[in-house]
Every structure is written in C-alpha cells, then in structure tokens.
Amino acid sequence: MTGELRPSAARWLGVASIVAVLVAWEPACRFGAFTPVVLPAPSSVLERLWFFMTDAQLRGQLALTLQRLAAGLALGITAGVVLGIAAASFRPTARMLEVFIGVLAPLPKIALYPALLLTLGFASAPKIALVAIESLFPILIATSEAVALVDRRMLWSAASMGTSRGRALHRVVLPACLPAIITGIRIGAVIACIVVLLAEMVASTNGLGYVLVIASRNFHTADMFVPIVIMSLIGFALDKLLGWLARRTNHA
Amino acid sequence: MTADAAVSASPPALSLVGVSKSFPGPEKDFLALQDIHLKVGRGEFVSILGPSGCGKSTLLYIIGGFILATHGSIHANGRLVDAPGRDRGLVFQDAALFPWLTVRGNIAYGLREGGMKRGDVNRVVHDMLSLVHLDGFADFYPKQLSGGMRQRVAIARTLAYDPGILLMDEPFGALDAYTRSVLQDELLRIQDSHHKTIVFVTHSVDEAVYLSDRVVVLDRSPGRVHSEVNVDLPRPRRRQTLLRDERYQQHVIDLGSVMMAMHADA
Amino acid sequence: MPEAAALRHWGGTAFIYAATVAILLLAWQGAAGAVHADFLPGPATVVPRLLGMLGHADVWNALAASLRRLAVSMALSLVGGVSLGLVIGRIPVMRALIDPLLALSYPIPKAAVLPIVMLWFGAGDVSQVFVIATTATLPIIYHTADGSRRLNERLEWAAAAMGTSPLRRLWRVVLPATLPEIAAGTRTGTMFGLIVMVTAEMIARTDGIGSLLFAHFDTGQNVSMYALVLLLGALGLLLDRLLAWATRHLTHWAIQ
Predict the structure, then answer these.
(1) How far apart are CA C187 and CA C189, in angstroms?
(2) Which residue of chain C is at minimal alpha-carbon distance from B93?
(3) What residues of B are in contact with residue C254 (Cβ under 8 Å)?
(4) What ipTM does this complex have?
(5) What span, in angstroms and rounded, lies between the C-alpha atoms of A212 and A206?
(6) How far is Cα A72 from Cα A193, in angstroms, rounded to an integer?
(7) What is the pLDDT of residues A142-153, one digit of tens each?
(8) Which residues, including other chains, have CB under 8 Å from residue C144's CB and lie 6 or more apart?
(9) pLDDT score at B7
(10) Which residues of chain A are within 8 Å of residue C198 when distances are taken between CB atoms?
(11) In this complex, which chains have at least 3 CB pairs below 8 Å with chain A?
C-alpha cells in the first residue's frame, strides 16, 4: 500500500539530502560547534584535497597506493577467476573448493598481514599480497557459484556441436558466468580499495595510508580526511563502473 | 433467492455506484475501470468474468478497500467502504499464506486478531481443517503443501473468522484441471452450508457458470460492465447432473461467444 | 534407504572436509620448510603453541575483550540496521533521501576512519565499537530494506483484511516476512564486523586478539603470533557456522 515515487522525484530528493548534509556540516564547523581538530569543515577538507593534488610529492604517494591496488586486484581477479572456473567445473574439485572457501573465507584476512610482513618484507609485496587475498574470496565465491549454475543443456548443445570439454570452459562457461564474475570483482574491488589503505596504515613508510597516519600523529584532522575521501571516491567509481559493466554483459 | 421480499428492505450486501479507477501514467492517466454499477444480494454468488487486463482484479481490490476508487462509492452492508475490514474476506490466486506460520497458525491468525480466546481458536481451527479436508495437516508449513492444499488453507483461513462477504481473486486459476474441479465442488458444498455473499473473479466461462447465481461480464480498455447473465440453475449443484443440463450448456456457449468476440476486438 | 544415503553423504562430506584441511595444513608445512622457519613456522610448531597458550589467562582475556566488543557492536547494528532498513524499505520518501547517502558511505574505509573517531571518543571501546558497528550495520540495512520492499503485497492485504492495523502489520507481517533477509544481512555484517574488529584492535592497540597479535609481532614472538592467526581463523569459522545454523533454524519455513 506504499506508493512508489516517480524516478525524477526520487533523484531530486537524493541530491537534496546530500546537499543538506554538506550545508549543515559547513556552518556547524564555521560557527564553532566543532573545533577544526575534532571535525574540519568540508571546505577546508576540499582545500587540503586541492593542495594534495597539486603537490608532486603527495601525488607520488597516491600513485604508489594505486600501483599496489592495481597489482593486488589484478592478482586477486586472475587467481579467483581461473581457480573458480577450473575447480568448479569438475565435481570432486568443486566439493573441495567449497570446503576451502568454507574454511578460509570467514578468517579475517587482515590477521595474516603480520605474517605477510614477516615473509615478504616491509615494501610493497605484503600490501599487494593482502589486497590479492582479500579480493580473491568474493571473486572466487561468485565465480564458482556461477559455474555451478550454468545450464547443463548449454554444455550439451556445445558438445553436440563438437566443442571439446576444455574449449567449452572458455567458449561457453566463461561468457555465461561473466556477469556474475564481474559482480564478484565489483565487491572485491571495493574491499581492495579499503584494504590497501589499511595495510599502509598498519605498517608502511609511504602511500596514502601512511599520509593518514602522519596526519593523525600531528592532529591535522583535515589532512586525515584527504586519503579517506580519495579512496572512497576511487571505490565509488570502481563500484559504479563495474556495476555498469555487469549490466552490459548480462543478456539474460 | 428465497427470502427476496424480506431482504429487499435491508441494504444489499454490496452496492457499487459509478465506480471508476484511473492510474497515473507517464504521459496521461490510464483508465482501468469506468462507471461500474453493481448490486450483490445477501448470500448471492456473483462471478466477475472478463479477459485479462479488463480490471476485474482491480475491481475486487477496490471492494476489498485496498485500492481507492477514483470516482464513485462502494457500500458493504450499508457502510461506506474506504479501508479493508473484517466484513470482507479475501482469497488470492497465490493463496498468500503467511509462510512463517503453520497451517494452524495461518487459520488462527484472523481469529486471534479478532480477540478470540485460545480454547475457542483451537476448536474453530479444528472445525475448519475438517471442513476443507486437511485434518492432520495442522502443523505443516505452507512450503510443504501442494498448490491445491494451500488454496484450501487460504479458504479455511478466511472462512474461520466468518466475514459476511468473500472476495475471491481467481482462487483456482493456478491449479491443474483436476484439482480445480475438486476445489470448485468443495466451494459449492461450503456455499450450500455457509450461505456467504461471494464475489468471484475468473476468466473461465465454465467456472463462472458452474459456481454462480449471476455472471457479470467486464469488457476491457477501459473495464466496464458489458452484460449480466442470471444463471437459473438449481442448488445444490452436482457436477455430473449439471454438465448434462442443457441450460448450463447454453450459458457456457453464449458466454463463450461473448468472450470470443471481445478477444477478437483486441 | 534414505538413512544409508544420508550416512554416505555425511561420510563423503566428512572425507572431503578432512582431505581439504589436510591439504591446507600440508601446504602450510611445506611452505614453512621453504621459507625461514623463524618467519613462517609450520603447523607442527604452531598448533602445540596455541594449545599451550590456551592454558594462560591473557589469551582468554583478549578473546573476552574482542568478543564483548563484537557482541555490543552487533547488538547495536542489528537494532539500528533493522530499524533503518525498515524505514528505507517501507517509506519511499525516506528511501529517496537515505539511499544516496548509504551508496556514498559504502566504499568509505570505515576502519581507516578510526584515527579520526579516536579524536572524538578516545582510543577505547567506544571508538572501536563505533567503527565495527557502522561497518556491520550497512549490510543489515541493505538486506532489510530490500527484503521489506520486495515483500509480497498480498500478505499485507490478507492481514489488513483480517483487521491488523498498519503499525501492527510491521510486527506481525513485515518483520517475519523479512526475517530471511535480515538473517543474511546479519551474517554478512558479522563477518565484516569481525574483520573491522581485528583491524581496529591493530590500529588502536588497547586490548583484544588483534592487539595481542601485533604485540607478539612487535616482540618477535612469531610462533605465538601465528597461533593467534589460527585462533582467529577458528573463531571466524565457528561464528560463520553458528550463524548459518541459526539462519537455518529461524527461517526453515522459507528454504525450499
């Protein structure tokens, strides 16, 4: 009995609520409800963001974080998709993969970070590894579930037309699972953005996470917001992009 | 209609005057129902028959008070309808049982909402289960039942709290042919003993003639009353005798050609 | 004979479980042999250490601190997430207003906000619970909103026809009908919460398993550190199984 709003009305209300939050936040800080150390005004965060983007040294920190993000995510996607399709396509390995996921997915992977630091050193490698491990699981789960749901009759049709079993993985299974895989990557990508920042915060001497830690030690609250805003925007953009891609590839 | 003279002084069970319904569209409003006039007597079984998209379900939901009419008024037992009420019970095509409640819980729901005491609730639930031949299924959950059994529970749930008017929205439309005829016969039997006022929406000509005292045919775009047919067949009705009855066959043939003509127009 | 089939199925599952866990342990032991044993001790060293550590109070104290933190956060998330989810799912205007804010807050690294939150509430439980609860609340909101929005309208109509008032319907129809979704959201939320709990404890370094883990790392007690990783893995697995069982138990009527 609840009537839906017209889409245009809903969009305007959405914009209005975001504007309302910013509009309320700004004067609350300007007129002293919060001191800048407790909560800086959005305008001063924006100011610091601008400074950050125009400073070559700080842009370098961003580039480093992005490299780690890209490398980790690429590893996670490759491992997740290859392992997911290969293991889920055969019954015994599919059951083993299920158990593998069941046992390891609930482990808070961040707990492995100290171990990664010990074994891989303190440079970029442990951060890339952690990003890869964290993004692996949602992609692996999505891929293996999608493979299990592929309509057997499609495989039978392909086989009857002479497609070999190995070839069918890439000619039939992969395209059939693509939307689900992209949805898995979408979840993994947002997690990856978060994890790369956390890894740099917990142990690092460079990158955006380190910038956040330094700002925190000096009580430069506006500077603490900058890395968070940047990573949130990157996560937001990746989420939207992959959501669009998942819809584009979904022909069902 | 045995007590026509006595009833005529009191208001009809249902009375619809000039009911119209339009839904807002992106360009212009869509007129679903136009100027519907309908009176249903106490204890009368009226079918609303029409092609898909003629707004017959919408009409039923308006009588139920779930959707408000754009124009016109509806009275149930003399009272203006502007909301759902316990005087009008609904049976939906998908049964709409509460899946988290057992059969017993579903049938008891309306009784508890009416403030009935636990002991009485148990007694009524027991009676209802035997009425719809589901003794022994009290502790089953809806997902464990077949479509026909679910529909029996839905009918029992509605009969249990004893609304004077039953509004049935293609209740047997999703069932297989055999189950459908079994449930039709059960509904006839229940009607013979309970004398409810029933408005029954269907797109099946046979079903409408078989069950009803009167069939109201709706045309579509916009939905409006096309014609009305009194089904002058005696009750109690038995399938074997009725199917051989020439009057039954003539009604089915006549209404069938009306429906065919409407489909041809579309 | 369904019993025999069930038994065979159970036997098969148990075998696959045992085989997979054995392969994981062997892979770990093998990797330990390949890497320096100080940096990556194998399960043969770590498991006995964990059992030994369980005889001391500090592991139990850390575990108690962590679990208390998680339990308080989850209680807050459940109450807040279900309420807000129902508001968004049931009231279109509220959905239009709140949905975009949620979409913006989804990619924010909540644990990374901890240093800022610590400026407000200090390094203690309040700050950590704040970030754990905000993280865990989001999936509960999403699932509750989605479930209560997609609810079969006929169920509500049936209740309305039987005299249930709109407010009462929220309790008697909308909430039970949404329960499977709420359970799914709670399961995801708890797993997110566990991750953020460990992260928050690593950053705040007050108490809890995450804090103890890093304390061992800092002092070079690597075997003890690995033992705690194992403990966290067991904790995650146990929580996940527990929630899966509770979900099955509470929503058996919805599972086909």
Answers:
(1) 5
(2) C154
(3) 99-100, 143
(4) 0.87
(5) 10
(6) 10
(7) 999 999 888 888
(8) C81, C82, C84, C85, C86, C88, C89, C178, C181, C182, C185
(9) 47
(10) 108, 110-111
(11) C
Q: Does C240 touch chain A (CB under 8 A)?
A: yes
* The residue type at B16: L
Shortest Cα distance from B150 to chain C (angstroms)? 14
For residue C236, give the nearest of A131, A188, A129, A109 by alpha carbon. Answer: A109
Q: How confident is the model at residue C165 (pLDDT cuts 50, 70, 90)?
A: very high
Instruction: Pick the residue from chain B with its C-alpha nearest to C251.
Output: B100
φ/ψ of C54, rounded to 5, equals -65, -15
- The position carrying tokens 């939150």 is C117
- The Cα of A162 is separated from the nearest Cα of chain C by a number of Å equal to 34
List the single residue in B with minimal CA-CA distance to C180: B100
User: Helix H segments across A149-220?
Assistant: 152-160, 165-168, 174-202, 208-217
* Cβ <8 Å between B96 and C157: yes
Q: How many CA atoms lie within 13 A of C59 on its CB side?
A: 18
Residue written as token pair 């610091």: A48
- For chain B, the C-alpha Rg in angstroms (whole number) is 19
Distance CA A212, CA A221 (A): 9
Cα–Cα distances in Å, from A55 out to A204, A205, A225, B42, B191?
20, 18, 17, 85, 84
Name which of C23, C115, C198 is nearest A110 (Cβ-Cβ): C198
Q: In Å, what is the CA distance from B246 to each residue of A41, B18, B58, B236, C209?
A: 86, 36, 33, 17, 85
Rounded to two decimals, the pTM is 0.88
